[in-house]
Amino acid sequence: MRRGRPQGATALLSLGEIPPTVALGRAIPEPTIHRLNNRWRGDPALERDPFMKHLILSLSLIGAVALTACGKKEEAAPAAAPAPAAAPAAAPAPAPLPELKVAIDPTYQPFTFKTPDGKPTGFDVDIADALCKEIKRQCVYVEQVWDGMIPGLQAKKYDVIISSMSITDERMQVVDFTDKYYNTPSRIVVKADTPFTDLKSLKGKKLGVLKGSTQEKYAMGELKPAGATIVPYEAQDQVYLDIKSGRLDGTVADQVEVNGGFLSKPEGAGYGFVGPVLKDPKYFGYGAGVALRKGETALKDELNAAIKAIRANGTYDTIAKKYFNFDVYGE
Predict the structure, then answer these.
(1) Using H for helix, E for strand and C for coil, what is the string for the chain?
(2) Which of 36, 48, 85, 196 is the most exposed place for a label (fewest CB within 10 A)?
């Protein structure tokens, strides 16, 4: 017979002494290795078999390596790097200032008018902005035709009127006023070559006035009885258009306003002042103030304090010099 593998080897394998985990690379229990070694040494046939010697030696080495590997301590994973510190939160935006709705009639240059791009400007507007800054409010401008100014205030369409409104006894019966912030007189304007000795010289003249103004009150009280025809207009700039077109002979207006809005312009050439300076409190009051609803004492006190503040800190003078070369605050 050809020499083959000893029957003992076949028996050993069939007994399952070599666990299937060897093929999977797992550790072989140490007792199993000892049992194989003992059989090999006690069995002459196995000791002479080269295959068995190689097998037993291999199993011994695999077991030793596995035991060594199992004895190693598992190293802890390196600690994660600390998260970067969060960026400081942005400072919160300042809270918006409470609004103060301000009524203006933007047809009264240089006090209230519009820039070419439609923004309100003028002495009244700059004063309003300065007052709002002092009382920590945000001015919001509301355009209103002059004759509807006081009804709009009473209807709460806006909070105040800052638009060259004169403080008169008649108006103080229905609204309240702050202290004045300027005072300028009014004048009669007609053709410069018009003969004038007294108010009767204007007999037959057609004069345009701003509806609801102190000038209208004066014209109705003094010029109409003298024989002049008085025509009220919704806006002063409409008066100037009709003078230019020849539909009117002249006007009664605030001296500063008529100079800036008409006489200093090409269409005002050939026109001028006649008669005395007009400042009778019976008609023209006590200067221009901020009008507000009756009973709003706290707002009135704030605005009066603000008027005093801008007069004292130079803001008022800085604004006035933008528009006038005289003391517009007046008497």
Answers:
(1) CCCCCCHHHHHHHHCCCCCHHHCCCCCCCHHHHHHHHHHHHHCHHHHHCHHHHHHHHHHHHHHHHHHHHHHCCCCCCCCCCCCCCCCCCCCCCCCCCCEEEEEECCCECCCEEECCCCCEECHHHHHHHHHHHHCCCEEEEEECCHHHHHHHHHCCCCCEECCCCECCCCHHHCCEEEEEEECCCEEEEEECCCCCCCHHHHCCCEEEEECCCHHHHHHHHHHCCCCCEEEEECCHHHHHHHHHHCCCCEEEEEHHHHHHHHHCCHHHCCEEEEEEEECCHHHHECEEEEEECCCCHHHHHHHHHHHHHHHHCCHHHHHHHHHCCCCCCCC
(2) 85
Identify any residues that bridge with 156 across adjacent strands, giving them in sequence order.
none
Q: What is the pTM of this model?
A: 0.71
Q: What is the largest CA-CA distance in the chain?
A: 165
pLDDT tens for the chain, 331 residues: list them. Answer: 444 444 443 333 333 444 444 443 444 455 555 554 555 455 555 455 555 555 555 555 555 444 454 444 455 555 566 666 666 667 777 788 999 999 999 999 999 999 999 999 999 999 999 999 999 999 999 999 999 999 999 999 999 999 999 999 999 999 999 999 999 999 999 999 999 999 999 999 999 999 999 999 999 999 999 999 999 999 999 999 999 999 999 999 999 999 999 999 999 999 999 999 999 999 999 999 999 999 999 999 999 999 999 999 999 999 999 999 999 999 8
Contact call for residues 243 and 208 (beta carbons, < 8 A): yes
Q: Could you tell me the fold of the domain covering 186-284? A: D-Maltodextrin-Binding Protein; domain 2 (3.40.190)
CATH superfamily of 99-183+286-323: Periplasmic binding protein-like II (3.40.190.10)
